[in-house]
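Researcher: Please generate the 3D structure of the following complex. Treat every line as part of one assembly.
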Amino acid sequence: MSGRQPFTEYGRPRRVSGGLRARSTRGTIGESWWSRRFVDVLESFALGTRLSRGRSYARAGQVLSLEVAPGEVTAVVQGSRPRPYAVSIRFRPFPEPLWARLETLLAAEALFSARLLAGDVPPDLEQVFAEAGAPLFPATIDELDQRCNCPDVAVPCKHLAATLYLLAEAFDADPFQLLHWRGRERSRLLARLRALRTGESTPDLPGHGADPAGRKVRRSARRTGRTAAAAADPDGAVAAAPAVPSSADAALASPVGAGMALADLPATTLAEVADRFWVNPVPLPDRPPVLATGPGLVLRQLGPPGAAIGGPGLVERLTRAYRRFDPTGD
Amino acid sequence: MWWREDLFVLVVHGVWRGAGRLAVWAEDSALPPRWPRRPGRAPRERPHPFAADHSGLADALGELAAKAATGTVLLTLPTRSGGPTDSPELVRTEPVEPGRGPVTLAGWRAPTLEYDADHALPLLLAFGEREPTDVDRPVPGASLRHLARLAEFAVELVGRGRTLPGLRRPTATGAVDGIRPGTSPGPATAGGGAGGETVEAVWRPLLTGADAGWARALTMALPPAARSAGPDTPPAAVDPAPPASGAAVDPAVGSAGATVADALDTLTDAAARSALDGVRLIGAGRTTGADTAVRAWLRALTGRQRAFTARPEAIGVLDAELRAWQRDAAGGPVRACFRLVEPALPLPDVDPELAPRVDPETVAPVAPGTASRVDSESVDPESVVSVEPDAGAGLSFATAGLASSLLALTPWRIEFALQAADEPSLIVGADRIWASGADLPALARQLAAPQEILLTELGRASRLWPELEDALRTAAPEAMELDTEGAHRFLRHGAPVLHAAGFGVLLPSWWQRPGARLGARLRARSRTAPGTVAGRSALGMAALVDYRWELALGDQPLTADELTALATLKTPLVRLRGQWVELDPKRLAAGLRLLRTTGELSVGDLLRLGLADQDDPAALPVLAVEADGPLGDLLAGQAERHLAERDAPEGFRGALRPYQRRGLAWLAFLQSLGLGGILADDMGLGKTVQLLALLAGDPPDSGPTLLVCPMSLVGNWQREAARFTPELRVHVHHGAERVRGPEFTAAVRDADLVVTTYSLAARDAAALAEVDWHRIVVDEAQSIKNAATRQAVAVRSLPARHRVAVTGTPVENRLADLWSIMEFANPGLLGGATTFKKRYAEPIERHGDDEAAARLRRITGPFVLRRVKTDSSIISDLPEKLEMEVLCNLTREQASIYQAVVDDMLAKIESSEGTERRGLVLATMTKLKQVCNHPAQLLRDGSALSGRSGKLARLEEITEEILAAGERALLFTQYAEFGGMLRAHLAARFGREVLFLHGGVGKADRDTMVARFQDETGPSLFVLSLKAGGTGLTLTAANHVVHVDRWWNPAVEDQATDRAFRIGQRRAVQVRKFVCAGTVEEKVAAMINEKRGLAAKIVGSGEQWLTELSTAQLRDLFALESGAVVE
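Model: Done. Output below.
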């Protein structure tokens, strides 16, 4: 990295708009155990203020883009110079024979796929990888080949740190991203697992080792949040991530609400029902019975929300509300 | 005041305006139906001719209007002859010429009161609570009542926690001036500063499963009137391009789906905030910092301030995170389904006695390769937790007793499958899914990536039910194997949670069936077996009986040894005599303790034991209470069938039908036990004669019976008593001249039957309570259905040895009514009102709890006798056509007008002759009949109808019973204008559509009316003018015919009656002919009935024969007899 220039070193970064912004707004970054594991590794080595400045970079949205590809994460980070810095973090992908062994192990227990698809990582996944000789997380920071074209000689510099934090969040949102970095893209992994499960021959995806054409998954500045589980769309992968967040163009549509249940009902014009205008056009049937469950069930069903909006703490606050909803309660 | 002011002035309608706003407007019957006709094409928008103005609306709604803003709404209404059509609830006292020509849609602007979300909810709930027949003003239209249902649903969803918080764009509040009373300080700004974006926090309904189905049903049934609001601003007046032709207003104004969705969203949000009143989810604290958007959102989730401002990026993150979090809440089109399968048992050849036969189809584990077995399996999508066909039904009980819980060779299984959310009968087993590739042509669609869907669903489910994880340790799990404890844990805890989270769950049918549960049966033996003869040796609620407990599994009694053996098994599910049974160790222990107790208890306690606290998990449910002798018959609910028919006592003049003799025996039997009863026979089965026969059988010194009935029935009882039991001494305690003090005491002492009204029972309660009543009978007992009313309280507080409630309305349908009436008949039997509501009314009415319903039936069954006309044992006793003359009283107003008409006309008749005299006689007859119908018909003054006519009052009572029984009636009158009054009045009174056929109705419209009436879902009441509707039509949907006034021509009346009584009629037809007592109507009716004197001349000649009578004869005929007025 080039010579130090105090002005750039201590200068304020240029404000950008529309950058990727760390979703957690306070405290630590990394919500689930797997992203936390990753951040722990990072934090155990990085020193001094660069770490905290990297975190505020991540939160300020200085990272303009983030791409995950087998073996390499690349990012563009806006620093204090007009031209943003290019960041790359390499981590050796598992070789193909190792992946083949890993896939056999993963396919042997449906629980791995089930939990990954449901959006989290079963705790013993790390163990499976470790026992196969393929540790998921770096044991030391040296295993990561980190590059940034900023003038700072320190590694990781704050741009790298910001990128690593965002990467942890990306793992939070979609655990498949972690596996992708280590060499298996989601749709390919799912296809292989399916083939092993059903005993079919491996679908002939060209090439071995890294994914075909080194397919990259890009997390662009206009795209964040969790991937929609896209369960019905094994190839959708990260591309199905909800496009948000600049709220100006978002409809704030919700996956719940009465409209969802009523969307496909036939529309009748008033003219068609003019003869039954004042009465029920069709009789109201008897009310089907309703199973009474505790009002807090829906919170249990959903699990905790993202760290950006408070994680488990938010559930705790909302539980107070649901307790009050229960008319038989206090 | 002897009549009420007519209360039915306004009909209030609700219109959902979208964007979370409710508008109400009202039709005012006092205003003219249409504006004077103007030439030229109808304008796009006209003021509604009979919409109530703002002050009228505000008066009608009272305090509910305080929170509303005023406005106007452009309504798209059915329009005919230049005026909007009346809603069926609207009463027009002045008959209105029905419009002619086709119905089109047109725009009418009406004044409104507008409510925002927080105020719409209480308004709608206030209207939801009242019955459509309540007389309080104002009358809600169907639109408002339906919106009230939506509000109730929203409150219930919130109560069950079926709601999730989210974000939404601010509704266009700025466009609605004055909608938000109590000016808000503006959105809370959260650090965003000038660049902030304002959004709203909102609670949205989460509709899954049965809730989604109900929301759809509510949408389909939404009265179009509730979505007839046009845009806020009228179309520009200077529209250069008027529509080419046809409808002046665009007919597509907001679909039902969009309207209900907006209303339900809005009301759910309001209900959640109302439940959270005073709650803060987050402290005031910081207003700057990185998480301000989340904090501001949490703050805006409670209270009335929904809007908050934050940086657009922060809102974007919040929105995306919330959506990602809630993504799975409602579930996708395909969901995982879990099906619990019982262990397969050893085959019968092991030990035919011990091991029951097994239906291999039901319990055999699925062999690999038989995947399609579960495909398209038929599952009842209605049930909450679907159950399978009865696995235990074909099993024979092993006489050796206990069995095979330990012999089960295979474990329990939960089979995994995918199920189409919208078509629960479509199920694909996991085995087929694992065998499939990337696609599966099943579930009525091409299912892409079925394996990944199933895996995702299993992953989600394992979060809720962690035990599932163990089953997912294989490559392609098809099922989860469980031991008995595990199966029990799944049944108790896993299944409800998974079901509520939207997964499909199929359980064996024995689960949740009372027969599969261990329970206690109480056996009692009366010490003195009272005979079935009525008498004073009453058993009474306080009498003591010996008892002992038995334990039973469903119907099968268990011995102490068996029970002990069960207790040692220490397993929660046991296969006992071929049937799986849930065993709770605590209950088992309680059962063993119970077996050791014996002793004595009172009859009242015995009956109440059936109500043992079912909420206590350690208590054994009481499955049955049994006794020997008559008490046993009673408890078995078989008393009526087992009792010997009882012949009418000597003092009774008349013949009782066989079922009436059984009813009499039942009443006498209850009386002998000292218990009260509810005689709830269908209308027309002769409840009055059964009671009179009971009274006639009382011993001479037994004391008086008090009969409380509605005012309109006092005369009827008097006359019926005179006819059937002439020896009974009847005293009527009624009217301003009623005797009081010592005179009253003396009158009662000399009477066998004292008849009074509900209002007097309340007013003179103190005096009535002084009397030592042998018996109290309440007729039309639905009058005391509301337990809190003065008359209900008063009637309940009167002491008597025997109580009978009489009602023709099926009481079992409305549980609160049942409680109130039973509290009169057998005080304390059903426990306190609050307990009753919690234990029975809510579980049964809200959650369809069959077990609670069965328990309630068991307790109340012995005390309610209800025979319906369709009972096979009744139907053979009944004639196919039952004709009754219904005597009605005149009100004082009617009587005075009647007298005035008679005096006036007789004077004129006396001094006339020839054609003029004949004309005068016929005119007199017409006028008198009109007075008997209603003063307003004669006076033609458009005055109010309620409370001024005895006929109308009786007609309302009879119609109410008909409607409550779900039956239909034809109402004939010879006067079209009276028909119009009846239609309007009854429609408003009952809040439902009433058809009206008269001479002015064209053929096409008449055919439509007939078709609609005959249709299953059509209106229940049909008013017909005798001339227009008396011939030709087939109206067999009705099994009641009421001739409100008489034509004195049996052939004509029979012909009209035959509209209903003809081929296609499957029920007995009841024909009622109304006659005002003490008037010319009764006298002519008597002549016809007795076929004496003028009968021969009368038949077939209408009223012409009257003109031949001498003036003296006319005077006798027209004269008003004393007793015509009973008030």
